[in-house]
Design brief:
Oligomer: single chain
Order of helices and strands: HEEEEEEHEHH
Structural class: alpha+beta
Shape: flat
Number of strands: 7
Distance between the termini: 55 Å
Strand content: 15-25%
Largest sheet: 4 strands, mixed
Radius of gyration: 22 Å
Number of helices: 4
Helix content: 40-55%
Length: about 180
């Protein structure tokens, strides 16, 4: 049994190392009053005019963050960050600067209409995310009541931790998204 644990730990370490070295790369993001430039290490730079962005979405969950920019062509530009594999970077500051910058994007010409970039709702802000959140909350309260009345069967503590761990992780992300939505309004 101990040997199995050692093998699992060794393969997990090898997997982490391979992901960090082979699948994760650094990207330089430059934001100006009119453009956002994304320059991956060893790749070609992509420059996006802020006035051409139709909408954006900022998603944050469990140490992962992404900024998705939707263009009129339909092809999105995605910038991602993972706190597990990325050593440095201030992604929340980038998102805050981006939101401040798009608040007053100048139009292409003086006769053009002002540019308005829409913020898309995250999964946790959409009605389906709210329904799932309330469903999980009710299920966890009901499950707790069941445990108080009937107790836990021997050997089932793993299931208990799985239910509460996943439920609380979803509820934390759901609450976080709802509080951000309330601050934005």
């Amino acid at each position: 049994m101990v040997q199995c644990g050692i093998w699992v730990a060794a393969w997990a370490g090898v997997g982490y190392y391979l992901i960090k070295k082979l699948a994760v790369g650094t990207t330089q993001v430059t934001l100006t009053a009119e453009t956002l430039t994304v320059q991956p290490t060893g790749g070609t730079a992509r420059q996006v005019l802020l006035r051409e962005i139709v909408s954006y979405a900022h998603n944050e969950y469990n140490g992962n963050e992404s900024l998705l920019l939707r263009l009129p062509t339909g092809k999105p530009v995605v910038i991602g960050y993972n706190s597990t594999f990325c050593d440095e970077g201030d992604f929340p500051a980038l998102v805050a600067d981006f939101e401040a910058q798009i608040a007053d994007v100048p139009p292409a010409t003086t006769a053009a209409a002002p540019v308005s970039i829409l913020r898309e709702k995250t999964f946790f802000e959409k009605p389906v995310g709210n329904a799932i959140g309330w469903l999980i909350l009710v299920a966890m309260v009901g499950f707790t009541g069941y445990l108080l009345l009937y107790g836990l069967k021997p050997g089932k503590t793993g299931s208990l931790f799985l239910v509460y761990g996943n439920g609380l992780a979803y509820l934390a992300a759901w609450r976080n998204a709802r509080s951000k939505q309330a601050k934005a309004q």
